[in-house]
Design a protein that fits this description.
The structure holds 2 protein chains of 2 kinds. In chain A, 65% of the residues lie in helices and 2% in strands. Chain A has 15 helices and 4 strands. Chain B has 2 domains: 36 residues; 145 residues, Sandwich (Ctag/Cox11 (Pfam 04442)), CATH 2.60.370. The longest helix of chain B has 35 residues. Chain B is flat. The chains are: A mainly alpha, B alpha+beta.
Chain lengths: 541, 191
């Protein structure tokens, strides 16, 4: 084998490959991270469009937009799938994870750069499959699959015989394998490639959060893949009958498999946001994070307990009361490590020198809104109450408070925190502030009234509702208009920042920002750490 | 790089194991239901070896057919009162109202589900597939008993009524006809 010097490869210095090779054959973790972020923004527009149309429809009683009622169900289902698999996960894991995990642990790149490329490029393929599913026959009612993101049989087997759902299965399998490859890559990178002196207990909390998330992905996604394979073979004529009672199967088994994946999945979406918020709160309080080890192991605990609570999504299937009692108790246990995190963030801010920068506002809003979503989660964990609230708008409000406000606020928090680091330019803080406040008010206006609707008994996934629910629905839809305006403001500040190009220095947040990415230039060199950083014993986290 | 490869191999092994566990869940789930009576899965036995106690239990009978299956399926008695341990014999009447022979199979469960591990069938039409000729009417026996161990479990002190439910499915339809568009294949009394 010929000996190749660093200079011979053309990658030794900061010279980048040409446009096509750089973005399409990309093996650079920062470029792939950027691709993931662009992809997440695109998917967010698609998923956001679907939800906006739903909110327009629900603005008043009667059927306004969806004259083909089946299409409404298609929109509901696809909004969930696209936002989860193609917006939140690519943003927090693929985007920020790729960008900052190697830098934060002092590694030159990911462990398997080409597999990283494969992980990313499986996603557009998967999204194309899902988009095709809109336009091919789903059931006798029309095009597209309207069985909800949970895909329960028999609605997803005999109920949707058309090819539409097959495209969704293929797309989700592709997205699932993309995430499994990504998870293998992250775990290998974090376990093997930390800089000298960076023990696992000195690793930044964002790297911790991605490590736990990757472990959850590795354990949960293969189960979803198995369930999807079984659905696929059940759908074939004369195929298997895993979920078909006529052939000895049980549709309830799909629900168990799905939620064995589905519950860890919600932590997969929120844990990286926990990591981001920890750094932001610490930076802008000018204090190291309170209870570092407790914070790290709280995430581990959430991940572990997250695997043994899945049936709280299925209290109404007719479970034994003892089983309900177990899942109730196990679910409430999750409030303990989550509480550890909330109180540690508050303790970090306590007595700190707080600066209310844009990312700090997103972080504080995250903590506030995530607590609201967490509290309604504790309510729903109670099997007795859940029987009444199951599949009502109370549940919709709950999981949008933890995801649409939790995970998404975490994403904007990370984006505004690291924007200058990633792209070397800073945004206008008035525009970004306007984006924050309109988004904060907008999403609260959308989802807070939905608690009341749920308590009044309005079921989810219906295109129409009785007159009694009109008032809170109209407020909710007004919130959607405000959120739409807010999304426009997001693109305005993004475009303004990229056009005006206000250059930033290496550590533009100053004292308090002390993880390794702040020792590099903004944006970081194409290949960082020609000399590996050495972490000394007295270095903070 | 070997360290990377080793880590990656272990992680791939974990992912493959979870995939395997996903598929293995089918037999595991069936076994779990049989052993624990989860979801109201009843037990089977060759003969009734239970001792007969003084405690009485009302057994109610319920019947359902899959949507679109042209069978008239009714229990011949609404309820039977038996002593714990005593064998009970109930009959279900099935009539094929269509003009073609149809083979069907019945799924079954009991409620309350906690009574399922103690509800034992020694003879049942649900153990095998049933073929019924056009217009034919058959009376199927079910021989069952409630095991005397039910009396030893404190959780089951309150059980005075047990409902036995059957749902008949058309298995020809599943094998031959293409999946028909129906809102739900099951019209089952979910326990």
């Amino acid at each position: 084998m010929a000996v190749i010097g660093a200079d011979d490869t053309g990658y030794g210095h900061d010279d980048k490959p040409g446009f096509f090779a750089r973005w399409f054959y990309s093996t650079n973790h920062k470029d792939i991270g950027t691709l993931y972020l662009i992809f997440a923004i695109f998917s967010g527009i698609v998923g956001g469009y679907l939800s906006f149309m739903m909110r327009l429809e629900l603005g008043e009683p009667g059927v306004q937009i969806f004259e083909d009622l089946h299409t409404y169900n298609v929109f509901v289902s696809m909004h969930g799938l696209i936002m989860i698999f193609f917006m939140v996960m690519p943003a927090v894991i693929g985007g920020f994870g790729n960008w900052f995990v190697p830098i934060m642990i002092g590694a030159p790149d990911m462990a398997f750069p080409r597999m990283n490329n494969l992980s990313f490029w499986l996603l557009p393929v998967a999204l194309i499959c899902l988009l095709i599913s809109f336009f091919v026959p789903g059931s006798a009612s029309g095009n597209g699959f309207g069985g909800g993101w949970v895909m329960y049989p028999p609605l997803s087997t005999t109920g949707s015989p058309g090819p539409s759902f097959d495209f969704i299965i293929i797309g989700l399998l592709a997205a699932g394998f993309s995430s499994i490859f990504g998870a293998i890559n992250f775990i290998t990178t974090i376990l093997n490639m930390r800089a000298p002196g960076m023990t696992i207990h000195k690793m930044p909390l964002f790297a911790w959060s991605v490590l736990v998330t990757a472990a959850l992905l590795l354990l949960a996604l293969p189960v979803l893949a198995a369930a999807l394979f079984m659905l696929l073979t059940d759908r074939i004529e004369g195929g298997t009958g895993f979920f078909d009672p006529a052939r000895g199967g049980d549709p309830e088994m799909f629900q168990h498999l799905f939620w064995f994946f589905g519950h860890p999945e919600v932590y997969i979406m929120i844990l990286p946001a926990f990591g981001i918020v920890s750094h932001v709160v610490s930076t802008f309080s000018k204090k190291p994070i309170f209870g570092y080890l407790g914070m790290a192991y709280a995430m581990v605990a959430i991940g572990v307990v997250g695997f043994v609570v899945w049936a709280h999504h299925m209290y109404t299937v007719g479970m034994d009361v003892n089983l309900k009692a177990y899942f109730l108790a196990a679910t409430l246990v999750i409030a303990v490590p989550t509480g550890v995190k909330i109180f540690s963030w508050l303790a970090t801010m306590w007595g700190g020198s707080i600066r209310f920068t844009i990312p700090m506002m997103w972080a504080i809003a995250f903590i506030f809104l995530f607590v609201i979503g967490g509290v309604t989660g504790v309510v729903l964990a109670n099997a007795g109450i859940d029987v009444a609230l199951h599949d009502t708008y109370y549940v919709v409000a709950h999981f949008h408070y933890v995801l649409s406000m939790g995970a998404v606020f975490g994403i904007f928090c990370g984006f505004t925190y690291w924007f200058g680091k990633m792209f070397g330019v800073q945004y206008n803080k008035w525009l970004a502030g306007a984006h924050f406040w309109t988004f904060f008010i907008g999403v609260n206006l959308i989802f807070f009234p939905q608690h009341f609707l749920g308590m009044q008994g309005m079921p989810r996934r219906y295109v129409d509702y009785p007159e009694e629910f009109a008032y809170f629905n109209s407020i909710s839809t007004m919130g959607a208009y405000l959120t739409l305006a807010s999304v426009v403001l997001f693109f305005v500040w993004l475009a303004e920042a990229l056009i005006v190009r206000r250059k930033v220095e290496d550590n533009y947040w100053g004292e308090g920002a002390n993880t390794l990415e702040w020792t590099l230039s903004s944006p970081p060199p194409y290949h960082q750490f020609n000399q590996l950083p050495v972490i000394k014993d007295d270095d903070g986290h | 790089m070997t360290r990377h490869k080793l880590t990656a191999r272990i992680l791939i092994g974990v992912a493959v194991a979870m995939l395997g566990l996903g598929f293995a869940s089918k037999p595991l789930y069936d076994t779990f239901c049989k052993v624990t009576g989860y979801g109201g899965t009843t037990k089977q036995a060759e003969t009734n070896l239970s001792e007969i106690l003084d405690r009485k239990v009302n057994i109610y009978f319920d019947s359902n057919v899959q949507v679109g299956l042209p069978w008239d399926f009714k229990p011949e008695q609404v309820k039977l009162t038996v002593n714990v341990g005593q064998s009970g014999l109930a009959y279900y009447k099935v009539k094929n109202t269509s003009d073609r022979a149809i083979t069907g199979t019945a799924t079954y469960n009991v409620t309350p589900t906690k009574a399922a591990p103690f509800f034992i069938k020694t003879e049942c039409f649900c153990f095998t597939e049933q073929r019924i000729e056009p217009g034919q009417e058959i009376s199927f026996p079910v021989l069952f008993h409630v095991d005397s161990q039910i009396d030893e479990d404190k959780r089951l002190k309150d059980v005075r009524d047990i409902t036995l439910s059957y749902t008949f499915f058309d298995i020809d339809d599943e094998k031959n006809a293409k999946p028909s568009v129906q809102l739900s294949g099951v019209k089952e009394s979910l326990n």
